[in-house]
């Protein structure tokens, strides 16, 4: 298959590119390098089935088909990043999604949307099944991301309904792993980078809010399986084991062996109080469930950050 994949230089996009190439497909990876990095794709540089195009996925792309799949992952993804650039976030998930659906339609390709557990907002139903409609503040600071992803699902369903564009939608729950940007701003990368620098680990609020953390390899496996079935409605992909943020902080503190302490900072506005996927549908439809427990995934992520921070320290030392 020939795949157009936006957000290819990002954390998830680069792992998905690796997997598609390993499975024998050809990938045209598009990214504007706003939060992604070319180093995430260094392993594919010599691969002739991989091509990189630097472009803004909010605009119509000048790429030559044919494509079998159009996969849209480009978007600022961490709350500090999407709040820093609200209009770009709205655009890539709304106008960008529509342009890419047009591209899929023109190529007779299937369309994949990287949606999010954020469509459930601060959920009143727990855990969250796909049938839950969500509880999102439409004008709060998170709305630029949450509402744009909700629109993305709506426009994708409309293209599917009106033009018969084959569709897959994954609602991705908090995913972590190697290649997250050290300054990404999400909780796992923040706490690991802080711990490795022996700086205080920032816990927002009282740390009693919950999240369910999925290792990136499990997500990629889920996406690949989703592409292989004929199912055109949203599917949750996440790890159903729920942790408080405080427990996560304590675990990272003990696993890194840092002497730094946990510090409490204000809880961001509209921060969801709890989140856990109901993955019954993915289990049944895809025969899929996460395989990597949090401690194991964190060990691999901590090692990757340790190596990256050591190599940037060597570069800085060499430059001075
Ligand atoms: P990331 O920031 O590492 O990757 C996003 C990539 O998109 C980056 O490479 C960035 O440069 C690129 N990008 C952003 N705007 C662009 C634009 N206008 N044009 C071209 N490229 C653009 O984040 P990630 O965690 O890998 O997220 C990938 C996708 O998965 C996003 O759509 C995100 O909303 C979704 N998602 C991620 C999570 C998670 O926990 N990681 C959870 C739910 C949904
Ligand atoms: N969080 C935290 N410390 C940080 C970054 C985030 O306590 O340094 C909290 C954040 O307030 C939220 C949870 O961790 O309750 C997950 O945040 P993240 O930004 O990773 O993802 P999201 O809120 O989108 O689930």
List key phrases describing it:
320 residues, alpha/beta, seven-stranded parallel beta sheet, 10 helices, binds nicotinamide-adenine-dinucleotide, binds uridine-5'-diphosphate
Gyration radius over CA: 19 Å
Q: Strand sequence of the main sheet, in spatial order? A: 3-2-1-4-5-6-11
Label the overall shape.
Answer: globular
Q: Classify the helix fraction into a percent range.
A: 40-55%
Output the number of helix runs: 10
The protein's oligomeric status is single chain
Strand content: 15-25%
Q: Distance between termini?
A: 47 Å
Beta strand count: 13
Mean pLDDT: 97
Low-confidence stretches: none
Q: Which molecules are bound besides the chains?
A: nicotinamide-adenine-dinucleotide, uridine-5'-diphosphate
Could you state the order of secondary-structure elements as H and E? EHEEEHHHEHEEHEEEHEEHEHH
Major beta sheet, specifics? 7 strands, parallel
In words, what does this structure look like?
The chain is an alpha/beta fold and 320 residues long. The protein is 40% helix and 17% strand. It binds nicotinamide-adenine-dinucleotide (NAD) and uridine-5'-diphosphate (UDP). Uridine-5'-diphosphate binds next to α6 and β8.
In short:
By secondary structure, this protein is an alpha/beta fold.
Q: How are the SSEs ordered, and which strands pair?
A:
Elements: E1 2-6, H1 11-22, E2 26-31, E3 50-54, E4 69-72, H2 79-84, H3 86-93, H4 95-107, E5 110-116, H5 143-163, E6 167-172, E7 175-176, H6 187-196, E8 201-204, E9 210-212, E10 214-215, H7 216-228, E11 234-237, E12 242-244, H8 245-256, E13 262-265, H9 280-286, H10 294-319
Parallel strand pairs: 1-2, 1-4, 2-3, 4-5, 5-6, 6-11, 7-10, 8-13
Antiparallel strand pairs: 9-12
This protein binds nicotinamide-adenine-dinucleotide and uridine-5'-diphosphate.
Nicotinamide-adenine-dinucleotide (NAD) is lined by residues 6-7, 9-13, 30-36, 56-58, 73-77, 88, 92, 114, 116, 172, 174-175.
């Amino acid at each position: 298959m020939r795949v157009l994949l936006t957000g290819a230089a990002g954390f998830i996009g680069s792992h998905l590119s690796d997997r598609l190439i390993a499975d024998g497909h050809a990938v045209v990876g598009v990214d504007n390098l706003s939060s992604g990095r070319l180093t995430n794709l260094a392993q594919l540089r010599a691969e002739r089935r991989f091509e990189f195009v630097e472009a803004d996925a909010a605009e119509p792309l000048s790429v030559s088909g044919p494509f079998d799949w159009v996969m849209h992952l480009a978007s600022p993804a961490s709350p500090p990043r999407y709040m820093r650039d609200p209009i770009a976030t709205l655009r890539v998930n709304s106008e960008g999604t529509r342009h890419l659906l047009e591209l899929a339609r023109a190529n007779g390709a299937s369309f994949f949307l990287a949606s999010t557990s954020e469509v459930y907002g601060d959920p009143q139903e727990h855990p969250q099944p796909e049938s839950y409609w969500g509880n999102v503040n439409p004008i709060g600071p998170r709305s630029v991301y949450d509402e744009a992803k909700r629109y993305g699902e709506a426009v994708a369903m409309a293209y599917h309904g009106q033009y018969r564009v084959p569709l897959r939608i994954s609602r991705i729950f908090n995913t972590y792993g190697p290649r997250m940007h050290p300054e990404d701003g999400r909780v796992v990368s923040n706490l690991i980078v802080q711990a490795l620098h022996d700086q205080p680990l920032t816990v927002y609020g009282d740390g009693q809010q919950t999240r369910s953390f999925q290792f990136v390899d499990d997500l990629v496996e889920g996406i690949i399986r989703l592409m292989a079935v004929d199912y055109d409605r949203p599917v949750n992909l996440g790890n159903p084991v729920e942790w408080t943020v405080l427990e996560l902080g304590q675990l990272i503190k003990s696993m890194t062996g840092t002497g730094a302490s946990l510090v409490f900072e204000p809880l961001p506005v509209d921060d969801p109080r709890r989140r856990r996927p109901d993955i019954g549908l993915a289990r049944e439809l895809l025969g899929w469930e996460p395989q990597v427990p949090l401690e194991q995934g964190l060990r691999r992520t901590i090692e990757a950050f340790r190596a990256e921070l050591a190599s940037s320290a060597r570069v800085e030392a060499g430059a001075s």
